[in-house]
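As a next step, the fold was encoded as tokens, giving this record:
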Amino acid sequence: MALKTFRPLTPSLRYTELADFAEITKSTPEKSLVVTKKKTGGRNNNGRLTCRHIGGGHKQKYRLIDFKRKNHGVKAKVIAIEYDPNRTSYIALIQYADKDKTLSYIVAPDGLKVGATVESGPAAAPEVGNSLPLSAIPLGVSVHNIEMTPGRGAQMVRSAGSAATTMGFSGDFSQLKMPSGEIRLVHKTCCATIGQVGNVQHENISLGKAGRARWKGIRPTVRGMVMNPIDHPNGGGQGKSKGGGGRQHLTSPWGQLAKGLKTRAKHKNTDRFIVQDRRKK
């Protein structure tokens, strides 16, 4: 994937860098694999704002992605590479060679082309796009779409350009180095897909203007210090006030300290699966 830049005819175009979509081969999604997506505007079922800076944007349909890949032993052909507005990665439309010619969407790994063949199951070859149990994947191979619990479906390493690396085995567990740097144990019967997630240059995209953010459903953000006291703990006061707000310790809108406070639970059941913390140098 490459990024396209623009002649600086306007101030916003000077810094705009967008995807060129050269890999995309199909512009409309498969109708049988999309469902309606209702926008919440950041509000919960009581109508209260629980997630700020969300609202507006283009209408979107949700693409049903197959994160379980349970059709073991059946080869599938890649029909198209498509854009998905719900995720940073591209998706691949595949058609299984069974009698029903089943269609399915998977997250498109980097290097997967139209016409390629993918497969899932313990007998599949460790090639890009194939889904295998961790016990069948050689060491040092990049993987994505990793299950946390056998059979639940991929939950880890699904965003654009991300990949984990198989490090070794420890009893019934496989050691994986995650994109964050954390080394984690995952049961060897959990499945993972070979390769790195596609759309690798996504992190270098620059929207260029506020309007493009609004198209994506992102509303403006302002500092808590410039809000009113009813809206934020740091709000209020005349100007940059020390008493009314703005010069205390930074907090969230609900009063939780924003800097230095460890929010992860001290004792979690999953702590035993972390071999090396991501912050360790």
